[in-house]
Design goal:
Radius of gyration: 38 Å
Shape: elongated
Largest sheet: 7 strands, antiparallel
Helix content: 25-40%
Number of strands: 25
Strand content: 25-35%
Number of helices: 10
Distance between the termini: 73 Å
Structural class: alpha+beta
Length: 547
């Protein structure tokens, strides 16, 4: 026999619970109610927005690996902390996913009970009329010679024609009750449901899709084939299978830029277009397409975007023995809207020591009182200005390096005879000899490159549907007015006194106009749509009072 059973059998009463003490079941129910409340959903939505802020402030590894690497080098103290907090991959972090999932649960738990509540309200009949209609803020009355039954029947027909739901006649009730605007609550419900749909769309895209990027030289015959090894960076969704990559290839044949020649933004690119040719299935005939910003190329389930462009100076490096140890177009990354660009050259096979170049490319270079200045993005006076390093560039340590980062930890800065740093300043076609017999560097020419993003986003249609639902729900909740109308008729002194009242449940509606229009159409012989007093005419048997 259990202790509780013995206590009940002996008549002993259990000790009273302390104030606020909850059983496990009560605690779980309390936690669920708090999580699924609208207040919690709004708080979680705000927290999700705040959690996304670091993703737009701190460089993200999946978006710009070079910028992330440079930030880590510039902030060695903060980097370990940020890495532990996953701030370099905010949207893939466990804490961001936890907020996302809690928000989904909160919204679903909030919407489902409201759905059942709305369904019951949708099927409910309008409430009975108040006892004294004339005490309502918007009410009116008039007298007529018609019978009570005739007035009530006309009111029922008129209200039903105007879209009101009319309360069925019941014994003991002496009034007509009607209501409209039930879809306003549906608008609120659809709006909240749309948030869930948008979140599901983003989740589907991040789980089943991918996003990759590649930099292609304009006019390069190698082009791009949609294979994993061809990507410079590739961020797959958790459930994405590489076998889902579509079969296609494309080349960037040419590239046109429209530069601004005047105004505050002089020298910046106003518009640009890449002329590409692509094949589907790798065996089809090439098809041409003009790739523009926000006008992607759609191939099966894959979208190809033009998201950036820049310059690739053709640089040739010969070592101290005269051997060509580096030659070809080198990608320089823009650092500002005028396309002042940063780049790195690594000559690993140079003798007697490895050669590294690091510096800037000026599309339109001018010298202002001894200081180098870039005037605009158009290549009117292309100039290279780079520092030179020699020694161990960390290329033989077996670790991968970014092509845009020069490891200078064990390298030596090349200097002039007076000890000042040696700097290469080359214009197109020029060659300069390096100190200490290290070799020569030549600026051969200039090519262009395009930054292309290739992605699959399977959930974008779902997210678009969610956005459309949000707009529909918002419009419904803003413009649908839930109103109730009551009419009571009774015989007094040989005539029928008709009292009519209306109530706007949402507030802010002009119920007086609606009430006047309704009374005008209820009067015997009235023309539908005629407002009493609008032209000074009215039935001789009618007297109106409005409160």
């Amino acid at each position: 026999m259990s202790t509780a059973t013995k206590e009940r059998a002996s008549g002993a009463t259990p000790p009273p619970r302390r104030a606020g003490e909850l059983t496990l079941g009560e605690l779980l129910r309390f936690g669920w109610r708090q999580l699924t409340s609208m207040r919690t959903a709004l708080i979680l939505l705000l927290v999700l927005a705040l959690a996304a802020v670091p993703g737009s402030i701190v460089p993200q590894e999946g978006v710009d690996a070079l910028k992330t690497s440079n930030w880590k080098d510039a902030h060695p103290t903060l980097t370990p902390i940020y890495e532990r907090l996953s701030l370099f991959d905010v949207y893939g972090s466990p804490w961001f996913a936890a907020i996302y999932i809690l928000l989904m649960i909160s919204l679903i738990g909030c919407i489902i009970p409201r759905t059942f509540h709305y369904w019951r309200g949708l099927r409910a009949v309008p409430p009975a009329a108040p006892r004294n209609l004339t005490r309502l803020p918007d009410s009116t009355s008039y007298t007529t010679d018609e019978d009570v039954a005739e007035v009530e029947e006309r009111a029922r027909r008129l209200l039903a024609k105007r879209g009101y739901r009319v309360r069925p006649a019941r014994d003991g009730e002496d009034a007509v009750s009607a209501e409209r605007g039930y879809l306003r609550e549906a608008g609120n419900l659809v709006f909240h449901l749309s948030v869930v749909v948008v979140l599901v769309g983003f989740a589907v895209g991040s789980l089943l899709g991918y996003k990759g990027g590649v930099i292609l030289l304009v006019g390069d015959d190698a082009g791009f084939t949609n294979r994993l090894t061809q990507y410079d960076d590739f961020v797959p969704g958790t459930l994405f299978d590489v076998g889902q990559l579509d079969d296609f290839a494309f080349d960037v044949d040419s590239f046109d830029v429209d530069w601004l020649d005047s105004g505050p933004a002089q020298g910046q690119a106003r518009g640009f277009v890449s002329h590409v040719s692509y094949v589907e299935g790798l065996d089809d005939a090439p098809t041409e397409y003009d790739l523009r910003v926000n006008h992607p190329l759609q191939i099966d389930d894959t979208e190809i975007f033009l998201i950036g462009h820049g310059y690739a100076p053709v640089i040739t490096v010969r070592d101290g023995e005269g051997n060509e140890v580096y030659s070809g177009p080198t990608i320089f990354l823009p650092q500002s809207p005028d396309f002042l660009s940063f780049g790195v050259v690594k000559a690993a096979d140079a003798q007697p020591g490895q050669i590294g170049l690091e510096g800037l490319f000026y599309p339109t270079f001018i010298n202002v009182e001894g200081d180098p200045v870039n005037v605009m993005g158009e290549a009117n006076n292309p100039t290279l200005s780079m520092q030179v390093y020699t020694g161990d560039l960390g290329l033989d340590q077996g670790q991968s390096q970014s092509v845009y980062v020069l490891d200078k930890a064990d390298a030596e800065l090349v200097t002039k005879a007076d000890g000042s740093p040696f700097r290469l300043d080359l214009q197109e076609g020029q060659t300069e000899t390096l100190p200490d017999g290290l070799g020569t560097v030549t600026f051969e020419g200039l090519e262009r490159w395009n930054r292309i993003q290739i992605s699959q986003t399977p959930g974008k249609e779902v997210a678009l549907i969610g956005v459309c639902l949000a707009l529909l729900g918002l419009l419904g909740s803003l413009f649908i007015r839930p109103r109730r109308v009551w009419l009571r008729a009774r015989r007094e002194g040989g005539s029928t006194l008709v009292e009519v009242a209306a109530l706007d449940r949402s507030g802010g509606g002009d119920v007086g106009v609606v009430l006047q229009q309704l009374v005008a159409d209820l009067r015997p012989g009235a023309t539908p749509g005629h407002t009493p007093g609008a032209d000074g005419a009215g039935p001789a048997t009618t007297e109106e009072k409005t409160s």
